[in-house]
Write a structure and sequence with these properties.
By secondary structure, the chain is an all-alpha fold. It contains 9 helices and 2 strands; from the N terminus they run αααααααααββ. The chain has a domain of 35 residues. The radius of gyration is 29 Å and the shape is elongated.
Length: 204
């Protein structure tokens, strides 16, 4: 009974956070709502004894990917008004995609030929069972090539994000570290003689 209450509670928070991601007008608020959605998803995975996936979701997605999202959102100088201007033009396409996804979810929920009975809870594993070991054996043997492909795609995404943030902007004054280090005293300091001082001339 207590596990059921936790499930429904975390599910409600997850749905609210998902709505906040798509409803919020500020992209930073949307990213923060996505962080909350990741945390509640990790809590749901803990309820079904998927501890490794829950920890990876928090460490990788919340700790790394979402930080990258926030950096990209803040450094790209996104013109929110310009983005909103074209929203109504493609709103119909978004509704069509949403209806298709909802239809697929309803079909999966009511289908009886998938071999999965949603009314039966997960089977409790013994204490010495390690789902991390089971996942590692499958990931690095049967799915090793898709795993490597995903790593390459993530590397391409990181390079693309860096390339977008390092683009040239008008009015930007970048630093030339080599020129700053190679500067000499004669290039920055000039000695001027004061000819108005009585008793001779001296440096000022």
């Amino acid at each position: 009974m207590f596990v059921d209450l936790l499930f429904y509670g975390f599910s409600t928070i997850l749905l609210a956070a998902a709505l906040g991601v798509i409803i919020s007008r500020n992209p930073v608020y949307s990213a923060l709502c996505l962080v909350l959605a990741f945390f509640t998803s990790a809590a749901l995975w803990l309820l079904i004894e998927a501890e490794f996936l829950a920890i990876v979701l928090v460490l990788v997605y919340v700790g790394a990917v979402m930080v990258l999202f926030l950096f990209v959102v803040m450094m790209l100088d996104i013109n929110v008004e310009e983005v909103k201007r074209g929203f109504t033009r493609y709103a119909w396409l978004g509704w069509v995609v949403s209806l298709i996804v909802i239809g697929q979810m309803i079909t999966v929920f009511y289908a009886k030929d998938f071999g999965i009975d949603a009314t039966i809870g997960p089977v409790r594993n013994p204490v010495d069972h390690s789902n991390t070991r089971e996942l590692g054996e499958v990931l690095y043997t049967q799915y090793v090539y898709p795993f490597e492909l995903a790593a390459v795609l993530l590397l391409v995404a990181i390079v693309a994000a860096i390339a977008l943030t390092m683009r040239r902007r008008p009015g930007l004054k970048p630093q030339d570290v080599a020129k700053q280090v190679a500067v000499r005293r004669e290039d920055r300091v000039r000695l001027v003689k004061d000819v108005t001082r009585e008793g001779g001339e001296g440096p000022r």
